[in-house]
Design goal:
globular, single chain
């Protein structure tokens, strides 16, 4: 059974931190590069970071130096540590393979809100 369950979002003040988690089924996780995507209001979903099975990472310029992606291959889980959150970061955050196909399954995502 395919599943992606994102969690850890919430409301945080500017400059604050959150840690997102994504539990994935083995069919999506095992042996694949995993990434985090975000979709803000009125915007297309965009990838912000990915982590290969070997632990190599990539970050979009907008989050570089603030976000850290990691994965626990024993738990089929990928994490996103988000520090120094700012006004451009609020969005629904989703995890999935990288690259992801057009008809891919998506989880419910977890919402991040940055506000005073």
């Amino acid at each position: 059974q395919v599943h992606l369950v994102e969690s850890g979002g919430g409301l945080v003040q500017p400059g604050g931190s959150l840690r997102l988690s994504c539990a994935a089924s083995g069919t999506i996780f095992y042996g694949y590069t995993m990434g985090w995507y975000r979709q803000g209001p009125g915007k297309q979903r965009a990838m912000v970071a990915y982590c290969t099975t070997g632990g190599s990472t990539f970050y979009a310029d907008s989050v570089k130096g603030r976000f850290t992606i990691s994965r626990d291959n024993g738990k089929n889980t990928v994490y996103l540590q988000m520090n120094s959150l700012k006004c451009g970061d609020p969005a629904g955050y989703y995890c999935n393979n990288v690259p992801v196909g057009g008809g891919a399954y998506w989880g419910q995502g977890t919402q991040v809100t940055v506000s005073t």
